[in-house]
Structures are given as C-alpha cells and as structure tokens.
Specification:
This protein is mostly beta strands. The chain has 1 helix and 8 strands. It has an 8-stranded antiparallel β-sheet, with no helix packed on it. The longest helix is centred in the first third of the chain and has 6 residues. The two termini are 16 Å apart. 20% of the residues are buried.
Length: 134
C-alpha cells in the first residue's frame, strides 16, 4: 500500500458494551466493596487496527448523574493512538430514549475523555467508535 493511500485510509473501531445503570435509591455499598476501577472492556472489532479500553467514573453509573467516560486507544502492538476522533453512543435496548451521543476529547497519549448521562435506570449499550484519518 502506498504512503498516500495509507494516509487516506481511516479505521473505525466499535466496542459495544452492555452496562447496567443503577437506581439512585439503592443503598450505598460499604467502602471496602466499592470497585476502584471502572474498566469494563478492552477489545478490538474484528479486522480493526485499534484496541480500546473503557473506564467509567463512577464505576457503577447512576441515572440522572453525569458519568465520565475515559477511553484508551492503542494499536495492535499497544502503542497509544493520538489524533483519533472518538465518539460514544448510549442506547437503551428496551426503550427508545432518543439521541444520547457525545464526542470524547483527545487528552494525549492515546487517552480520550467525555461526559455522558444515563437518563433512567436499567440496561444500556454503550457503543464507542474511534476513527483516524479522512
């Protein structure tokens, strides 16, 4: 593949993750049981040139509260990928909740960050895409 074609190519990775969003009224877990990391997946779509991991803050999202999404994007060798366009889409499979999408900002060293909100308790699917190039 020529360098010109390589520059024009773009790669998209889709990571679909099933999230269970808690109800605000549930009792808080004792401090010793609270999960310290929200990393819920590290995967690459078949044929993709990227791997991604997703970390949520808080690790157990609550509806109506902001949730920080941190995504690390790397190549197959594990080198960070900067300069990509990373986008998140939140969908509730059992009910149409309207458009719930946002971009993640490039923080450097292959790290991207954005804030989203789950609008009700229940099962959600988060689809994260990363695209680099034209």
């Amino acid at each position: 593949m020529s360098e010109k074609l390589a520059l024009r190519r773009w790669v998209t990775v889709v990571a679909c993750l099933l999230l269970l969003v808690g109800c605000k009224k549930q009792e808080e877990q004792p401090k010793s049981e609270v999960k310290k990391s929200g990393i819920i997946a590290t995967q690459a779509a078949p044929g993709s040139a990227f791997k991604m991991s997703l970390d949520l803050e808080p690790p157990q999202p609550q509806f109506g509260d902001k949730t920080r999404f941190r995504v690390k994007v790397s190549d197959p060798a594990g080198a960070p990928v900067s300069g990509a366009q990373v986008h998140a889409k939140l969908v509730m499979p059992l009910m149409d909740m309207g458009k719930n999408e946002f971009d993640l900002a490039d923080k450097g060293k292959g790290e991207y960050e954005g804030t989203g909100e789950f609008t009700m308790a229940g099962e959600w699917v988060a689809t994260i895409t990363a695209k680099q190039g034209e």
